[in-house]
Amino acid sequence: MWITLSIIFFLISVVSSTLLFYSLRRITQYEEFILQIQQVIKFSTDKMKLVDSKGHYESDDETGFFFEQLKQIQLSLDGIFESEGEEDDKKTK
């Protein structure tokens, strides 16, 4: 009886550990993908601000909408993950 329960517990442990491993690996892949998107949007925002150094496009109603939406996306992505600089600041405190 105890041997049977031990075998069942062992099998459940192995299966759940394997599922956990693959789940964490998948989550890490998604996290890296979102970070890549965040970097692309940050690069795009920086380049657009460089092109529009005088602010003519950003203040225009039609193109200003695009600038504002890009800024909102950047802020949303910044809120998802902490940057490495923030982590370093917390460690030094």
Biggest β-sheet strands, sense, barrel: none
- Count every beta strand, where a strand is a DSSP E run of 2 or more residues: 0
Query: Tell me, what's the shape?
Result: rod-shaped
- Sheet/helix structural class: mainly alpha
Mean pLDDT: 83
The proportion of residues forming helix, as a percent range, comes to over 70%
Number of helices: 4
Distance between the termini: 55 Å
**Rg (C-alpha, Å):** 23 Å
- Please write the string of helix (H) and strand (E) elements: HHHH
Sequence stretches where pLDDT stays below 50 over 5 or more residues = none
How much strand?
A: under 5%
Short characterization:
This protein is 89% helix and 0% strand.
Which properties best describe this structure?
single chain; mainly alpha; rod-shaped
Describe the model.
This protein is an all-alpha fold and 93 residues long. The model has no long low-confidence stretch (mean pLDDT 83). It is built from four helices and no strands. Helix content is 89%, strand content 0%. Helix 1 packs antiparallel against helix 3. It is rod-shaped and about 80 Å long. It has a domain of 56 residues.
